[in-house]
């Protein structure tokens, strides 16, 4: 979430600029406070690009859960059961990898639609970094997110071509989704880096569960790890496809993360003015003084461009190395001869 230091520092509705204290939640929720604060919060939320991106992200997470757990959608999904062929009095079991994958056209269309929503979400997150250069280092996870979304769209388009568990398209889909899961895992750690470089250093924010941003990126990272483990299992044992439901746990954690991103945005727009500061009422965040060597709040780390890293590498490689001075051999012989004569 982009932070503009000048705007944030002058924003009277920011929580760390709050000068009014409340002794209870009921005092904070009086009509006077609601009438004054809600219109301002609504105005900020409607104009927030980050909120729009998070809402699309939440729609995507809900859609995935509907496919996972709604029997009206997946009730007729593929059940990879054992098939038998009878030849006279002998029974021959079909190879496990030769069993058919029975796809449901409705589910396949849902996955294609959600993949398109995923691409839209990736674009909106990139767009939400207002005031940032497209070469900013914090944009790298957003570009990876586009790659991941494109890979999932590719695999969703091929779902209708699945034939057997060991078929060409089925195994190709596993490899594509394995690649997408790898990119997603790298991007999730990149988002932690982006958050670290941009979050406002003030009370209640940072590496603490009081900060919903922290819970959100933890959930995103955990879900990415779960998807990675699932895809490794499916690629090693393709016969588990359709029966291994580990990915559903990742979808649940993914949804939790989407909800916390919404909470974090509402926190940034000061919708939670009625909550106590660190569990304590009667304390105004803007009046808290911190006895520290650094001033609070501060607004993230300095901007680093991708091209800056390349320039540093070029400068480092172009620095001439100091040569070790070696005196000429002729002079050494002259010095040795003079010392020898002196000794004689």
TrEMBL record:
Keywords: Membrane, Transmembrane, Transmembrane helix. It comes from the Eukaryota. The chain crosses the membrane at residues 50-67, 110-129, 178-196, 216-232, 244-263. This is Uncharacterized protein. It comes from Adineta steineri.
